[in-house]
């Protein structure tokens, strides 16, 4: 049987704390926010703008419905083309 040799003590006689193994950072579990389609991929038709302008009009209260149909159209066009409304 082999003899065990005594281990030499480090200066100070204390052990260094055990190092934790580095782990890879976990990927975010959130899904990426869907981005609007580029304007060139789908042409915006007059019918699409008209439908969206009507939806915008329906979403407004009664007093605001009849005031700005052109503004509703421009807002619908901007949304569909992916540009911020002015």
Give a brief outline of the structure.
This protein has 86 residues and is an all-alpha fold.
Structure commentary:
It is a single chain. With 86 residues, the chain is mostly helical. It has three helices and no strands. The longest helix has 14 residues.
Give structural attributes.
86 residues; single chain; mainly alpha
> How far apart, in Å, are the first and last alpha carbons?
89 Å
Share of β-strand residues: under 5%
Q: What is the string of SSEs from the N terminus onward?
A: HHH
What is the tally of helical segments? 3
Global outline: rod-shaped
What is the residue-mean pLDDT, rounded to a whole number? 74
Number of strands: 0
Unreliable runs, pLDDT <50, ≥5 residues?
A: none
What is the radius of gyration computed over CA atoms, rounded to a whole number of angstroms?
Answer: 33 Å
Helix content: 25-40%
Class by alpha and beta content: mainly alpha
Largest sheet: number of strands, sense, barrel closure: none
What layout of secondary structure does this protein have?
Layout: H1 46-59, H2 62-65, H3 69-81
